[in-house]
Every structure is written in C-alpha cells, then in structure tokens.
Design brief:
mainly beta; disordered N terminus; 22-stranded antiparallel barrel; globular; 39 strands; membrane
Length: about 675
C-alpha cells in the first residue's frame, strides 16, 4: 500500500491548483460514432464496415491500462507476449504486418519480429479504440490486409480547464501513473500529459536466477496537442508524442565463488511522433481532410559487464547496437456527403508513405545501402450509393506504386442492409496487398533467444477476404442484442518466419494460407443493474505442412469463449464485473530431425478477472480494485517442442499473461 500511495503522489500533488468549483473535465461522447474507414464520422450502426468500438469507460472499469491488455480480452484477437520483443497481435488468424496499428489514422512504426509492441501504447491519452477486421488495403494500403486498430484521441473539451490524474499498483510489482491537463482559450485548445510505468516483477536476484520469466521495464511517455477551430468549417490539430522504454535482461552470476561477474543487456526504445490533421468543409455536401505524420523509432541495445568484487561496470565490446526507423506519411481526401437525401456520395484520396531503416543490423546487400527505404504512392476512389432507404453499397478501388514491388489494383465492395430498425446485415469482399517491409527484407536479429535474418528474395502477398455479419437489437421489452459473423481469408505468398537451417530463422513465402470461421455473441441487459454478455468463436487455421503424403488435416481448429457479468448501482456510482475468456487447445504439426511429421499441441486455458469500481464526489473521483488472472495462468503447456522457435525464451510452455495480481487504482477528474 505504501508503494501505491507513493506512486500516486506526483499525480495528485497538483490538485489544489485546479480547485475551482466550475472546473470540470468534459469530452464529447463519441461512443456511437466511428471514423475508421469512413468518408465522415458515422454512427456505428450505419457504417458499411463492422467496427468494434472499445471505449475509455470500458477499459477503466476493468483496470486496463495498455492496448495489449485491452485486446487480450476480445474474441478472435490473440496477443502473443515476448519478454524481449513485446506483445504482438493477430485477428481472426492473421497477424504480424497484416495488422495496421494507427493513432488518429497515422501508422505506428517500429515493428520487432514483425509486430508492433502493443504494451508500449498506454491508453491514458485515448478516448476510444476502433477495430476493423478484414482487409482494408483499398483504404489504408499495404499493412492493412488483415485489419486495422485505430487509437482515437479525445477531440474537444467543453470547460475552460480540464485536469485528470491517476495511478494504479498491481501486486506483481508494477505501477502506473499519469497526469493530463487541458486549457480552452477561445478558438484554441491545448492539452497534454505525462504517463509513467514501472514493472519490476521481483528482486534482482530472482530475475538473475531465471525464476521469473518476465523482464523488468520502465516507460515514460508524454504528449502535447494543439487544436484550432475558428468555425464549424475548419479544424486543425497538431499532435506530438514522445516515448522511452528501458528493458533490462539480468544475466546469471558467473564464477560465484571467485571474482563473480554478470552480463546484463539493456534495450532502450525511443519513439517520437509528429502528426498534423486539418479538416475543411467547403459546403454541407463537400469536405476535405489532410493527415500528415512524421515518426521516428530507435532501439538501442547495450551490454554491460558488472564485476561484483569490486563493484565496477563496463561496456562489453561488440555488445552494442542501434536500429532506427523513420516513417513519413501524407494522406489527403476529398469527399461528398450523402446527407439531405442524396443517394450518391464519394471519396477521392491520395497518399504518400515512405519508411527508412538504419543500424548495424540493417543492410541492403543488393545495393550495399545502410539506409534502405521503401516508398509507396497511391490513389483511391470510393463510391457509396443508397439505392433504397434500407440498402447502401460501397465500392473502393486503390491504385498504387511501390518502389520495390509491383502494386496491383486493389478493390473492395461492401453492402449494408437494414430490413428493420432491429436488423443490420453486412456483406463484404476486399482484396489485400502487402509488400515486404524493411525488417523482413534487411533486418538481422541475433541474441540468446532469437536468431532471425532478413531475406531479399520475398514476393509480395496477395489476399482475398469475404465476410458476412448480422446484428439484431431488441427494445425495452426485449433487452437482447445478438451479433454474429462469418469470415474467410486467403493469402497467396504469405510471408512468415521459418527454420531454414537448424535453428536459424528467416522470412519465406508460403504458397497459400487460409483462415475461416465464425463468431456469435449475445448481450442481455434486463434492467439498469445487470448486463450479461456471452460469446463464442471458432477459427480454422490452414496447416501448411499438410499434403498428400501425410495424414495431417488441412485445417486446425481454435475455439474461444468469452463471458462478462456486470452488476451496477447507478445511483451509488458502483459497479462490479467478472470477465472470463477461454481459449481452446490448438493442434500443431512440425517436422522432427528426421523429417517426419510430429503432432503436438498448445494447451487450452482460462483467464478470469474481477473488478469493482466506485465513483465519489460527483463522479470526480474513481476508485478501481480487483484481481487479474484469478486462476494464475502464466503459461500454457506446449507438447512436441512446438514452443521452440525464432522467439523462444528457452523455457517449456508458452507465456500468455502475468500471474495472479491484485490491483488498486485511483483516478481524479476535475
């Protein structure tokens, strides 16, 4: 408890400064409006794409602080923690560079092992997260062939001042704090904040002994937003975000009896993001949007030798390395509105993207360039037609140029049918295209747990995506909502890591890869006190080792179940919830040393979380407490050695989550 109080001190010390009675934090409630893949902000129920919206209210009620923890609790979304590379994501069986992670429409750069580390994306500065599964290459380009995750910042405040501070301590020995401040000055608005995270997990001795599989880390992030809105027709937003993380790998004690020493590895990650957004409405029927971003990512590896007798520290020769990426993007769109009863609307867009890489592990062997770059130029045209009040069709076509690979025409077609107020049906087809990235082509990563080399012989991926979804929403007499979806993904020349030479991994193309499956989810809210949500998903994953010479199945099955039980006392400002997720056993096949096919599996597991939340002082103060991972599932069993691989941590089993952890959090709004 002392750690918790001390961790909150700097977050709360500024409270008296903003103690005016008329100071309130208010933000526009956009829970029912989405912007991802839309011509203009659109009600979720009227979007031609099925968009999953996760709100700030939801994740705070669960004591969730970063994107990896939030998506871990969603059906068909699988997060994969790596103690060194961070946490990756797959959606409906597609992951890695097929998933585009964005902040306000600007892609996040700096993939490690093909993944954006979701644990580096703290949620304190965001209002909501929008997720669209399925190919969005026609709209967002190469890295969106499997879906998009878009983090949306809060747009406006109604009061002259806003202040918010909070912190949370968890018994696995980690804590977070943040402070945010905003000021409205006529047509101008400025806001920003600082967030801090520390994960220790245990004593240094236990970390050196390998008792704890996780590595301690410290994170510090800050951001600044400037907004100018002189009229309803013009909005301009500049955002700056900076982030630094230090990850420490404590080595075991060598020669403990005579002149003992240790070798520690420190990985320092630095991100700096600049973004500019301008929206202008020429008339009620015509509006434009400009989005630009300049992002930098740097990861520094430092190896230190520490002699314990005497206590001295020195750098290890050859143990230092820096890898850096820079990304630039400019996207402009011009769109017409389907308001005022118009049946036809459209959007024309232009996009420029460039990414460069540098560092001791990056080399273009063909040109001997130490700073290889990939440039993408694209234009897309979208048309939306409401040929009946209940029917809306949208077609999009993207043309592009990639500096290293030929860019095909990328089409997409979506249909929305609303036969009644209760029913929504969506049918969609989308093509996908993904050119290999800098990391897959030129990056080499070798350490005690990884041996990965890039390949410049890769072919670009081509994909097809089909989906059908339905939604039925009841009324006060039938307080039930039912949603379901069927999906199918097919990828030609899929890029994946493969063991090419006895533990050496490189990127290769597979002839094909497919996933298909379905989801069904029900929500029942009989009154203002109770809400019950239950859902299931079945995903079939292509088995690339199946052929006519063996009896391995063509597809492997992954089943999931998700349940939430929520109890509320609105007048008392109290809520309690139980969140459960079950992930079924998944078979795996691999070749043994003699080339024979061996069947193994990744075991099934349950994750169970309990959270209680209480509001005080006219909802200005919120206290959240609970237990995460009640069943204490840190690893799942993996048979036949299938856990070993390019990202193997050298231990039996596959990491899925921190162990059981109690937590206590406090948030203040003013």
């Amino acid at each position: 408890m002392n750690k918790f109080i001390s961790s909150l001190f700097f977050a709360l010390i500024a409270v008296p400064v903003f103690g005016q009675a008329d100071s309130l934090i208010l933000s526009v409630d956009l829970d029912d409006v989405v912007v991802t893949a839309q011509y203009a902000p659109t009600e979720t129920r009227n979007a031609v794409h099925r968009v999953t919206v996760l709100t700030q209210r939801e994740w705070r009620a669960q004591g969730i602080n970063d994107l990896s923890e939030l998506l871990q609790r969603q059906l068909t979304m699988s997060v994969s923690p790596d103690p060194i590379l961070g946490t990756g994501l797959s959606i409906q069986g597609l992951g890695g560079q097929n998933i585009q992670v964005m902040i306000d429409g600007v892609p996040v750069i700096g993939r490690l092992g093909g993944e954006i580390d979701l644990s580096q994306l703290n949620l304190a500065r965001f209002a909501r997260v929008e997720v669209v599964a399925g190919a969005l290459s026609a709209r967002y380009g190469s890295d969106a062939a499997g879906g998009v995750v878009n983090l949306i910042t809060a747009t406006e405040q109604d009061a002259a001042w806003k202040f918010e501070a909070g912190g949370q301590y968890e018994t696995v020995d980690l804590d977070r704090q943040y402070v945010r401040l905003g000021r409205q000055l006529g047509d101008f608005q400025v806001d920003g904040g600082i967030d801090r995270y520390q994960a220790r997990f245990g004593s240094v001795d236990s970390l050196r002994a390998g008792v704890i599989p996780w590595n301690p880390k410290e994170q510090l992030g800050y951001d600044l937003n400037l907004r100018y809105r002189p009229s309803d027709s013009l909005q301009v937003h500049y955002g700056y975000r900076a982030f630094e993380e230090t990850l420490t790998l404590y080595g075991e004690v060598r020669r403990p009896q005579y002149l003992p020493y240790v070798s520690d590895q420190l990985y320092t990650t630095t991100r700096m993001d600049h973004s500019l957004s301008a929206k202008y409405q020429f008339s009620p029927m015509l509006h434009s949007e400009l989005t630009a971003g300049w992002n930098t990512f740097e990861r520094l590896k430092r190896t230190e030798r520490r002699d314990l007798e005497p206590d001295t520290t020195s750098l290890v020769a050859g143990g230092q390395d820096t890898t850096a990426y820079t990304g630039q993007m400019v996207r402009f769109s011009l769109a017409t509105s389907d308001a005022e009863g118009r049946k036809l609307s459209g959007q024309l867009g232009l996009e420029y993207r460039r990414e460069t890489g540098s560092g001791g592990r990056i080399l273009d062997t063909a040109s001997q360039s130490l700073t290889p770059a990939i440039t993408n130029l694209a234009a897309w045209l979208g048309l939306r037609y409401r040929f009946h009040s209940n029917w809306t069709a949208e077609a999009t076509t993207r043309l592009g140029h990639n500096s290293r690979y030929g860019h095909p025409v990328v089409p997409a077609v979506h249909l929305l049918w609303k036969p009644s107020r209760a029913w929504r049906w969506r049918l969609g087809y989308a093509a996908g295209f993904r050119a290999p990235g800098i990391q897959e082509l030129f990056f080499n990563f070798v350490d005690v747990n990884h041996y990965i080399i890039g390949s410049q012989n890769l072919t670009a991926e081509r994909s097809q995506n089909f989906r059908l979804s339905g939604e039925w929403t009841g009324n006060s007499r039938k307080p039930l909502t039912v949603t379901g979806e069927l999906f199918y993904n097919s990828i030609k020349n899929r890029i994946t890591l493969a063991d090419v030479d006895d533990g050496i991994f490189s990127y290769v193309n597979l002839d094909e890869y497919k996933t298909y499956g379905g989801t069904l989810q029900l929500n029942y809210s009989p009154n203002e006190h109770w809400s019950i949500t239950s859902g299931g998903a079945l995903t079939r994953l292509f088995n690339s080792l199946a052929n006519a010479e063996n009896d391995a199945p063509d597809f492997l099955t992954l089943g999931e179940v998700s349940n939430q039980l929520i109890y509320r006392l609105p007048r008392a400002g109290f809520s309690a919830r139980l969140d459960h997720r079950y992930v079924g056993r998944q078979d795996r096949y691999q070749a043994d040393a003699d080339g024979h096919l061996v069947r193994g599996f990744v075991g099934d597991y349950h994750l169970l979380h309990f959270t209680a939340n209480k509001q005080f002082w006219k909802d200005r103060v919120s206290v959240t407490a609970g237990v995460k991972n009640i069943l204490d599932r840190e690893r799942v069993h993996v048979s036949s050695g299938a856990a070993a691989g390019a990202h193997s941590g050298g231990e039996a089993g596959q990491l899925i989550d921190f162990g059981r952890s109690g937590f206590l959090g406090l948030t203040l709004h003013w």
